[in-house]
Each structure stands twice: as structure tokens, then as C-alpha cells.
Amino acid sequence: MTRVALVTGGSRGIGAACCRLLAARGYAVVVNYAGNEAAAQAVVAEIAGSGGRAVAVQGDVAVEADVLRMFAAADALGMLGALVNNAGVVDLPARVDEMSVERLNRMFSINIIGSFLPSREAIRRMSTKHGGKGGGIVNLSSAAATLGAPGQYVDYAASKGAIDSFTIGLARELAAEGIRVNAVRPGVIDTDIHASGGWPDRVAQVRDSLPMKREGTAEEVAQAITWLLSDEASYVTGAILNVSGGRG
């Protein structure tokens, strides 16, 4: 039966790079997107053009009904074997004493609940306890989880700190059920997440302060994620891999 990978936030940046690479490794891919259908369909078309299979599914990872619809699409493709919890948001730079409850609810709903809900559904399909054949989950953390992002977005950093704890706990919870759970902590990566947080020139501004004097690419992060999902990482679970060029 076809192995299926579901990538949340798969239409752009790191998520899109994961979709392309997982398709090249033989997975049928569910490309989840929140609002940019054109970008998601472009990823699907690229995968199809290379001989792979993919579908685009709109959905908010913090909304249970949307998550269920994503996984129904995965079920239609084959047997789920991989989940990449990539979807996440940042916001405009702000101090904590300037943050609204609306901002905090959005941040924590998408970045934390938006990894718990897809993981729950993946476990129900992949765990040997539920009759599954095992699989892998990779969560997207951030170097901000250890740096704290003071004066910028402590809320984002805190949400990624929660992802670190979630990764460790879930990995131990599922270790005997055929599911490996790991995370990557990207550093400064050249994607449009910086623009979405109101800081479009962030990469250029911080480049010279980075240990390697360059930003990372979405493809470099996707390579790490794909390795963690592969049989080459068969004894790796509960790991948090820094993909940050020495930062953090």
C-alpha cells in the first residue's frame, strides 16, 4: 500500500520543500495549506510533474474539523507513514506588555494545538496499539525556543519551547508503539515567514551576525526532516536537531 506523508503548512517555505523531498522518496503527499491555494496547487503540480502523487487540502491546524478533513484525504491516498507538523505563525515584533490576548490565542492555538491535533490523528492511524504499522512524526521547533526572542516575540519562542517539551514527552509515550517523534530547530532560514511577521528584511539584517555568515535554506531544513523520517534514523526518537548554522 502507498505510504502517505501529511505536511501541515505545506504550500510554501520549509513545508513545500518537505513535500517535494518526501514525494521524491516515494511518499504520496497531502499538502495542507491555510489560505494560499495557488501556492499549494503549484507544489502538487510540481510533484505530479515529477511522477509523484499529491493532493492539496485547505485547513486550519487549530480547528478539529479541518484536521479531520486533512486526514480523510490522507486515508484516501493510502497508509499514513509520516507527519510533519510544520504549520506555524509569527507576529509583529512586540514586548510582552504590548501583547493582546487575541495575539496570544492565535499564536498558541496554531503553534501548539496545531501540532497536538494532527499528532493525535496520526497516532490513531500509525500506532501499533491501534493496529497501525508505525511511522514518524517531526515537529518544527525553532532556535527561538532556546534564545527566548526578547523584545521581538517571546510568545513565539514560548510556543516553540512547548513544542520541544511535546516532542520529548510524545516520543517516550509512543516509543514502544512503532512511532518515532523528533523535532528540528531551524535558525534564520530564507523563507517568507519573516515578511509575515512584519520584518521582511530580517535575513539581510542579521546575516553578518550568524556564525556561518549566511542564512539557511528551506531545502536544508527539509533534508534534516526527511532524514529523521527515514529508516536511516531508525533508533532516533525524542531528538531535537538544531538546523541553525551554529546559532542558538
What can you see in these coordinates?
There is one protein chain. With 248 residues, the chain is an alpha/beta fold. It has helices at 13-24, 37-49, 64-77, 101-126, 144-147, 154-174, 193-196, 202-206, 218-229, and strands at residues 3-7, 28-33, 54-58, 79-85, 135-140, 179-186, 240-243. Strands 3-2-1-4-5-6-7 form a seven-stranded parallel β-sheet, sandwiched between helices. Strand 1, helix 1 and strand 2 (28-33) form a beta-alpha-beta unit. It is globular. The termini are far apart. The model has no long low-confidence stretch (mean pLDDT 93).
CATH superfamily: NAD(P)-binding Rossmann-like Domain
Amino-to-carboxy terminus distance: 41 Å
Overall number of structural domains = 1
Rg result: 17 Å
Share of β-strand residues: 15-25%
Q: Report the principal-axis shape.
A: globular
Average pLDDT works out at: 93
Q: Note poorly predicted spans.
A: none
**What is the top-level CATH class?**
Alpha Beta
Number of strands: 7
Question: Within the largest sheet, what's the order of strands?
Answer: 3-2-1-4-5-6-7
Spell out the blueprint of helices and strands.
Elements: E1 3-7, H1 13-24, E2 28-33, H2 37-49, E3 54-58, H3 64-77, E4 79-85, H4 101-126, E5 135-140, H5 144-147, H6 154-174, E6 179-186, H7 193-196, H8 202-206, H9 218-229, E7 240-243
Parallel strand pairs: 1-2, 1-4, 2-3, 4-5, 5-6, 6-7
Keywords:
248 residues, alpha/beta, Rossmann fold, 7-stranded parallel sheet, globular
Could you write a compact summary of the structure shown?
The protein is an alpha/beta fold.
